[in-house]
Amino acid sequence: MEHVKKRRSIRRFKSDHLPDEYIQKIIEVARWAPSGFNSQPWDFVVIKKENLRKKIVDIILNSHAVSAKAREAKAEYNSALSPLERLAKRTKFNPGTFLNAPVYIILYGDTRARIALPPGLDKGPEEKYLHIFKASLANAFMYMHLAASSLGLAAQWWTDVAFEPAHSNIKKLLGIPNELIAFDMIVLGYPDAVPRPKLLRPLEKIVEEVHDFGKRTKAWTIGQHRREER
């Protein structure tokens, strides 16, 4: 229980070198994750070169700019916004939150692993296959976070690598085959900040009050991002 509580998303990193041994341990743990029909659809792309990490940050920045323009092009985007929505709109992406981290690992899913599924699923409904595929990758990704935490490292996840146009541009940069789909990127390094206490839903009310708690935790999360980016 203490190990699970210790795992937190930390967004400030020291630039200190990360031993290759740590990276190997994190990947070794992740490859033991459960996957649908033991299909093990994962590949791990480790980015340590500073010039490549900077290019990935640039791609993500450009992707944010494209998304912002698309949102602003919609009339409803500038309509009556709630205070939280206005806060989110003003909060700009800050690459400094992970630019110093010495290692990025992008978890890719290999769609060719579908061949490992039993008859009916190997060529069955796409929606059902994708659910198994993504759930398997999510398991491996969480194992990576727990492994990093056990080594005393800070870890942060970035979903931008899974969405266009960043997804295609990063694959092109790294020479990733078409059959591989990015699930998420984990940013690794030594922590340069202490996370604030986590806001959790009360156990006895975990089914009730979903709507009210959703609004509270949204405010907490946005506030947490703004504090860490200062």
Provide structural commentary.
The protein is of the alpha+beta class and 230 residues long. It has 2 domains: 2-195, NADH Oxidase, CATH 3.40.109.10; 197-230. The chain is 44% helix and 13% strand. The chain contains 7 helices and 4 strands, in the order H-H-E-H-H-E-H-E-H-E-H.
Q: What is the chains' assembly state?
A: single chain
Number of helices: 7
At CATH level 3, the topology of the largest domain is NADH Oxidase
- Roughly what is the average pLDDT, rounded to an integer? 85
What would you say about this model in short?
The chain is 44% helix and 13% strand. The protein is built from seven helices and four strands, in the order H-H-E-H-H-E-H-E-H-E-H.
Produce the secondary structure layout.
Blueprint: H1 2-6, H2 20-30, E1 42-47, H3 50-72, H4 83-90, E2 103-110, H5 126-150, E3 154-158, H6 166-174, E4 180-189, H7 210-229
Antiparallel strand pairs: 1-2, 2-4, 3-4
Helix pairs in contact: 2-5, 3-6
